[in-house]
Automatic annotation (TrEMBL):
It comes from Hymenobacter mucosus. Pfam families: HTH_18. InterPro entries: Homeodomain-like_sf, HTH_AraC. Residues 182-292 form the HTH araC/xylS-type domain. SMART domains: HTH_ARAC (SM00342). PANTHER family: ARAC-FAMILY TRANSCRIPTIONAL REGULATOR, TRANSCRIPTIONAL REGULATORY PROTEIN. Keywords: DNA-binding, Transcription, Transcription regulation. This is Transcriptional regulator, AraC family. Coiled coil: none annotated. One of its GO terms (molecular function) is sequence-specific DNA binding. The keyword DNA-binding applies.
Length: 301
C-alpha cells in the first residue's frame, strides 16, 4: 500500500467548479483515480465519495466500499487510495474563518466531526447519499449564480451537512497498517515540515512538543518516540528542535522581526526562553546570528 501519492496541492492545478473567498467546491470526477495525500493548506475538507478506496491515517485505515461522508482536519494527515476506476461525489474545502463569519464563536476543532480522536468517516446508503448530494449541488448552484448572498447560503448548506452527519453511525472496520512505525515517523516529519516557513509574526507554531504531534496523529507519545527513533535514529524532541533552530536562523537573517516576534511565532512564551533555547543549540545568541547575517539591525523587542 503506497503512501507516495501526489498531495492535495494538485488542487491548485485543477479548475474549481466554484470559488468564493475561503470556500471552494469541486467534483471528485476532476481527480479521476489519482491517489491523494493530505496537502498543506489550512482548509477543512468534507468529501462525499462514491467508488471503492482506502483512507489511510497514521496507524490505521478504513476500507470504503459504499458511499461515504468524510471529514478532514487540516492538521491530521491522511491519504486516499482509490481501488476502482469510477470515483464520484464532491469535495468542499473551507476555512474556520469562513464558517465564523456567521458565528464568531465557532470552533471547528471542538466539533465531534473534526476534533482529535473522532471518527471522520461515515458510511451512507443510497437515500442518504441522494439527500447529501442535493446540499452539495445547492452549494455549486449558489456559488455559480454569483448572488451577493451566496456565502450565507453555502454556510447554511455546510451547517446542514454537519448536522446530518451527527446522526450517522461511524464505521468500525478500521485495520492496522503492517508498517505502522514507518508511517508514524513519516507523518510526524510531514506534520513538522508543514508548519514552515513562518510567513508572519502572528503565524505561530501549533505543534511544538512530541505530545502535540502524538495527539494529532492519535497515537501515544511513547509510540511516536519509538517509531521516530526506530526510523530516523534521532529523538522526536531533537528533530523538532533542529527544525525550529533552522527556521529561527532563517527569520533572523531574512526579516526585521524583533526577537520577541520570532520567539512568539516559534511557540516560545517569553523571549528569554527562546534566547536560552537558541544559544543551547547553536552556541550563539539570536542577536549575534543576526549581526553576522547582514546590515539589518535588531529592532527593540
Amino acid at each position: 500500500m503506497s503512501n507516495t501519492s501526489p498531495a492535495d496541492s494538485s488542487l491548485e492545478q485543477l479548475p474549481a467548479l466554484v470559488v468564493s473567498g475561503l470556500c471552494q467546491v469541486y467534483t471528485r470526477q476532476q481527480f479521476g483515480t489519482r491517489a491523494l495525500a493530505y496537502g498543506r493548506r489550512d482548509y477543512y475538507k468534507i468529501s462525499l465519495t462514491t467508488g471503492r478506496g482506502r483512507y489511510n491515517y497514521a496507524t490505521r485505515g478504513v476500507l470504503i466500499e459504499q458511499p461515504a461522508l468524510v471529514f478532514s482536519n487540516p492538521l491530521i494527515p491522511y491519504s486516499w487510495e482509490p481501488l476502482s476506476e469510477e470515483q464520484g461525489g464532491y469535495l468542499c474545502l473551507f476555512t474556520e474563518g469562513f464558517m465564523a463569519e456567521s458565528d464568531p464563536a465557532v470552533r471547528l476543532q471542538e466539533s465531534p466531526l473534526f476534533r482529535l480522536g473522532s471518527d471522520p468517516i461515515y458510511l451512507v446508503d443510497a437515500a442518504q447519499y441522494a439527500a447529501l448530494s442535493q446540499l452539495f449541488e445547492q452549494m455549486v448552484q449558489q456559488l455559480q449564480a454569483g448572488a451577493a448572498y451566496r456565502p450565507q447560503v453555502v454556510r447554511q448548506c455546510l451547517h446542514q451537512v454537519l448536522d446530518y452527519a451527527l446522526h450517522l453511525p461511524p464505521p468500525t472496520t478500521y485495520y492496522q497498517h503492517p508498517n505502522a512505525a514507518a508511517r508514524v515517523a513519516s507523518l510526524f516529519q510531514e506534520l513538522l515540515n508543514r508548519q514552515f516557513p513562518i510567513a508572519s509574526p502572528t503565524h505561530t507554531l501549533q505543534l511544538r512538543t512530541p505530545g502535540d504531534f502524538a495527539r494529532y496523529l492519535s497515537v501515544h507519545v511513547n509510540h511516536l518516540n519509538r517509531a521516530v527513533r526506530e526510523c530516523t535514529g534521532q529523538t522526536t524532541s531533537g528533530l523538532i528542535a533542529e527544525r525550529v533552530v533552522h527556521e529561527a536562523k532563517a527569520l533572523l537573517a531574512t526579516t526585521e522581526w524583533s526577537t520577541a516576534d520570532i520567539a512568539y511565532a516559534l511557540g516560545f512564551a517569553y523571549p528569554t526562553y527562546f534566547n536560552n533555547f537558541f544559544k543551547k543549540h547553536t552556541g550563539m545568541t539570536p542577536s549575534a546570528v543576526r549581526a553576522r547575517s547582514g546590515p539589518s539591525a535588531e529592532r527593540t523587542a
